[in-house]
C-alpha cells in the first residue's frame, strides 16, 4: 500500500493514541497488518535474539472475550487514584487534558472487543517466569518493535492505541488465545482505520523541565 506523505518528524510527532476515532465498522485487510509487522521486525532486539511473537486477533468471539477482560480491568483502573482523569487536578490546563484522556479511554474500554484487529506483541521467556530485578533489557527487545508497528500503521492510514490494562488478566487472555506457557504479553494494540485526519503534536512539558546534562 502507498504510505501517507509524512516526513519522519511528522510521523513521529503525529502518531497519536486513537480511541474515539477508530472506525469500528470498516474491515482491516490482514495484508495491511502484515505490512506493518514486517516494518516492526526491523526494530532493535537485544543480542539480536528476535524473541518476539505477534498475535493478531480478528476472530469476533476472541475479540469480544479480550474486550471484556479489558473492560473489567479498566473499571478498576478508572476507580483508582492512578487513572488519567485523577491526575493534575490542581493544574487547570492539564486537568482538562486529563479529563479528555480519561473520557476517550473509557470510550475505548467499552468498545475494545469491537475493534476490527487486536495486535498483541509477545515475548518468549524461558520457563514463562519473568526475571526479578531490572527488566529493561527484556522489554527493550519488544517494545521498540511494537512502537514501530504503530508508526507503520499510522503511515498506512491506520490508528492504534498503546494499552496494557488487559495484563491484569494476562493468564485468562493467554487461555483465550491458546498461548504457550513461555509466551508473555507486552501490550495490546487495537488497530483500525481512523476517521478524520487532524493529527497534530500533543502538548508536552517544556524540554528544559525534564532535561539533565551530565548531572541531575
From TrEMBL:
Entries under CDD domains matching the protein: Nitro_FMN_reductase
One example GO MF annotation: oxidoreductase activity
A Pfam cross-reference name: Nitroreductase
Signal peptide: none
Top-rank lineage group of the source organism: Bacteria
SUPFAM superfamilies linked: FMN-dependent nitroreductase-like (SSF55469)
Oxidoreductase recorded as keyword: yes
Record-annotated Nitroreductase domain positions: 14-181
The entry's keywords: Oxidoreductase
Protein family: Belongs to the nitroreductase family.
Annotated protein name in UniProt: Nitroreductase
Amino acid at each position: 500500500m502507498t504510505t501517507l506523505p509524512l516526513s519522519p518528524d511528522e510521523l513521529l510527532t503525529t502518531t497519536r493514541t486513537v480511541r474515539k476515532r477508530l472506525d469500528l465498522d470498516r474491515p482491516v485487510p490482514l495484508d495491511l497488518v502484515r505490512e506493518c509487522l514486517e516494518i516492526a521486525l526491523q526494530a532493535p532486539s537485544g543480542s539480536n535474539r528476535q524473541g518476539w511473537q505477534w498475535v493478531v486477533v480478528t476472530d469476533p468471539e476472541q475479540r469480544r472475550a479480550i474486550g471484556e477482560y479489558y473492560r473489567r480491568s479498566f473499571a478498576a483502573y478508572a476507580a483508582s487514584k492512578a487513572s488519567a482523569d485523577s491526575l493534575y487536578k490542581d493544574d487547570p490546563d492539564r486537568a482538562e487534558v486529563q479529563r479528555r484522556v480519561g473520557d476517550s479511554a473509557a470510550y475505548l474500554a467499552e468498545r475494545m472487543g469491537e475493534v476490527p484487529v487486536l495486535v498483541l506483541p509477545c515475548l518468549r521467556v524461558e520457563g514463562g517466569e519473568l526475571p526479578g530485578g531490572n527488566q529493561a533489557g527484556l522489554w527493550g527487545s519488544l517494545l521498540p518493535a511494537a512502537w514501530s508497528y504503530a508508526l507503520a500503521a499510522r503511515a498506512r492510514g491506520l490508528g492504534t492505541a498503546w494499552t496494557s490494562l488487559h495484563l491484569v488478566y494476562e493468564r485468562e487472555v493467554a487461555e483465550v488465545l491458546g498461548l504457550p506457557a513461555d509466551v508473555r504479553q507486552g501490550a495490546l494494540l487495537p488497530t483500525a482505520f481512523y476517521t478524520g485526519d487532524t493529527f497534530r503534536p500533543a502538548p508536552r512539558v517544556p524540554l528544559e523541565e525534564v532535561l539533565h546534562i551530565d548531572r541531575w
